[in-house]
Design brief:
The protein has 48 residues and is mainly alpha-helical. It has two helices and no strands. Helix content is 52%, strand content 0%.
């Protein structure tokens, strides 16, 4: 593929830091919810 040289030097703006942190927080909360609602699993996680 042929790109203009200026395209190769552009900064990538895919995700902001806040979006990445939010994704991680949501993923952790979802996993904790799955652990709490799975029968037979008693995780040592105290509810806030």
């Amino acid at each position: 593929m042929a790109y203009k040289p200026s395209f190769l030097d552009e900064k990538l703006n895919v995700f902001t830091f806040e979006q990445i942190v939010g994704y991680i927080e949501t993923s952790v909360e979802l996993r904790i919810w799955h652990l709490r609602t799975t029968p037979g699993i008693n995780p040592a996680i105290v509810a806030p």
